Amino acid sequence: MSSLVEAYAPLLEGRPPVLRAYADSDAEGWVADNLDVLRAALNGHGTVLVRGLDVADAAQTGRLARLITTELITERESFAPRTAYAPQVYSSSAWPANQPMCMHHELSYAQELPRTMVFACLQAPTSGGETAVADAAAVLADLPPDIVNRFEKDGWQLIRNYGETIGVPWQQAFGTDDQSEVEAYCRANDTEFEWTEAGLRTRQVRTAVAYHPVTGQRLWFNQIAFLNELTMDPDVREYLAMVLGPDGLPFTTRFGDGEPIPADVVDVINEVYQRHTASIPWQRGDLMLVDNLRTAHSRQPYEGDREIVVAMGDPVRRTDIRWSRS
Torsions phi, psi of 149, nearest 5? Predict the structure, then answer.
């Protein structure tokens, strides 16, 4: 197994840094030997794509993720269906191939969330399908101060309906079919809940601006725009509202005080994300690390078959993150 021969480069021309690995078919050995380099790249840039490891399958992705992170987490409160391929290794979120998945931070609404995302490309699409990234500190600095101040003062509210027909069934999202366990989870995680004819409705208020626990950077950290109903394709939104009723959408967001978020605010947030988007086409066998606090990620529309698997590690509790200036 050869040593690292090509160092990572800073973010250039809208591309995340790429680290070339020459692993001689020993991906686990290469990662173990180069953990310091990987962590330096991740801490320095918030994301790094490793090319040359030739990651083969979900099981190997899990082994690599366990080398890279301190601990993997089991996902709860997912916003879209996933398939579990290996212990704590999942498929990408199910999302229409012709629609973009907008910028977000994984589980930014949960009380326990991953600090590190580990993605692996098992099959690259014919075109598109990039997992794009955006620097959360740069996004925050570029947002209009009045929008930031409102969300920093009041937070943001996420309203979800877990149903059997559209979205994620509550049994899958919470990993149990016992309603009492779901209720206990919601109480322990500062989430209001009610059982409805369609399933489960939850409501949670979260802070929108976080401070990175290592770098101290002030970050735009939430899923306000992505999970707002106005980000949906208008035809899809109208159809869902017709079928499920205006209060039955799988998810939407509001200001923390419950006031609806105007369309122009959602548009501005998405436009700022777009200005700070960086991406590189996937190649089969690629490994990508993302600091989930510092870096938002998205998925571009694509054609052809695409198989990206993900593991989530380095869990952090919201209580361990600084949310205010004090």
Answer: -60, -40
C-alpha angle 59-17-118 in degrees, rounded to nearest 5: 20
The residues, ordered by sequence, that sit 6+ positions from 111 with a Cβ below 8 Å of its Cβ are: 188, 189, 190, 317, 318, 319
Residue 20 burial by Cβ neighbours in a 10 Å radius (0-12, 13-18, 19+): middle
47, 18 Cβ separation under 8 angstroms: no
Predicted TM-score of the model (pTM): 0.92
Compute the average pLDDT of residues 284-288. Answer: 96
List, in order of start, the domains of the chain with CATH numbers. 18-134+279-320 (3.60.130.10), 139-271 (3.60.130.10)
Task: Judge contact between 314 and 73, C-beta under 8 A.
Answer: no
Which residue in 103, 40, 107, 29 sits closest to 299, CA to CA?
103
Distance CA 110, CA 112 (A): 5
User: In the predicted model, is pLDDT for residue 164 greater than 70?
Assistant: yes
The rounded distance, in Å, linking the Cα atoms of 147 and 234 is 24
What is the C-alpha to C-alpha distance for residues 123 and 307, in angstroms, rounded to an integer?
5
Q: Judge residue 12's burial from the number of C-beta atoms within 10 Å of its C-beta, 0-12 exposed, 13-18 middle, 19 or more buried.
A: exposed
